[in-house]
C-alpha cells in the first residue's frame, strides 16, 4: 500500500510539471522570461518590444502566469509582470521553474531586443526627468505628501553612522540627492562625497545646499550611474534615499552600485514598500508604487550583494518605508 501511495504521489508531481513545460515550450515565451530577468514590464511595453498585438501578448502572459512562470504586479491602473519573488527550494515545481530561469539566462539577449529594452527605459527616464524639471520648486512639498524627510533620513543616517564608525571608509556616493538635504550627513562622515543626479534643476538646488552648509568636500555631477562607471570611480558607501521608485530599472541600480563599490562597501537604500496609492504617480512623479522587500533582496543577490540590517517605518498616511543595507563581499558583525 505504501509503495502504491508513493507511486501515486510521484505521478501527481510529474503531472504538476506538465503546465510549466507546456507554458515554457514556446520561443517567444522564453524570450519574455529572459527580458524579465531583472525588469518589470507592462503588457503594452512587452507588446511594443516584441512587435505584436496587445491581445496576443496578454494571452501569452496569462498562460505563463497560470503555470507559475510569471506573476502580475499592479501599478495603479496598469498591470506589470515579473518573475515570481517566492520560489520554494523544496518544491518540485518551483525547482523546475528556477532551472528554466537559470537555463534561459545563460543566453545573452540579442542586440535589437536589448535596444528596445533601453528605449523603454529611456521613455521612463524622460518621464521622470520631465516631472522634476516641472516641479523642482515644489520638490520638498511633493515628497512630503508621502513621507517627511526626517522620518526616513534620520534612521538612514543613524545606520550609516553606526557602520562608518567601524569601517575605514573614505568615499561616499549619493544617487539622486534631490535638494541635497542628506549631503551634510555624508559630508561629516566621509572625506569625499559625490552627489549624482540626472536633473540639472535638482542639482542646482543641491549646489545651493552645499554652499549654504559649506560642504567643501562634495562634488555634484550631472548624469547617471553609467557616467561614474565610465570614469572608473569607486566608493565605500553608496546611498539611494527614496530614489528607486523614480528610476526606470531599479534592479540595474543594484548592479551599478555593486560595480561602483569597493570590496567591503555598503549600499544603503531607503524606499517605499509596495502600496496602492496611484495618485503618487501624477503628484510625485513616481514610476513605481513601492517595492516588496523580497524584490530588493532578489536584485541585491543578482548583484552579488549580501543583505544586512533592515528597518521598517510605518507612516500615518498608510505608507511604509524600508531602510535596507546590502554589502559587497561580506556583512560585518
TrEMBL record:
It comes from the Bacteria. Residues 9-104 form the HTH arsR-type domain. InterPro entries: ArsR-like_HTH, HTH_ArsR_DNA-bd_dom, Methyltransf_11, SAM-dependent_MTases_sf, WH-like_DNA-bd_sf, WH_DNA-bd_sf. SUPFAM superfamilies: S-adenosyl-L-methionine-dependent methyltransferases (SSF53335), Winged helix' DNA-binding domain (SSF46785). GO terms for molecular function: DNA-binding transcription factor activity; S-adenosylmethionine-dependent methyltransferase activity. NCBIfam families: HTH_metalloreg (NF033788). This is ArsR family transcriptional regulator.
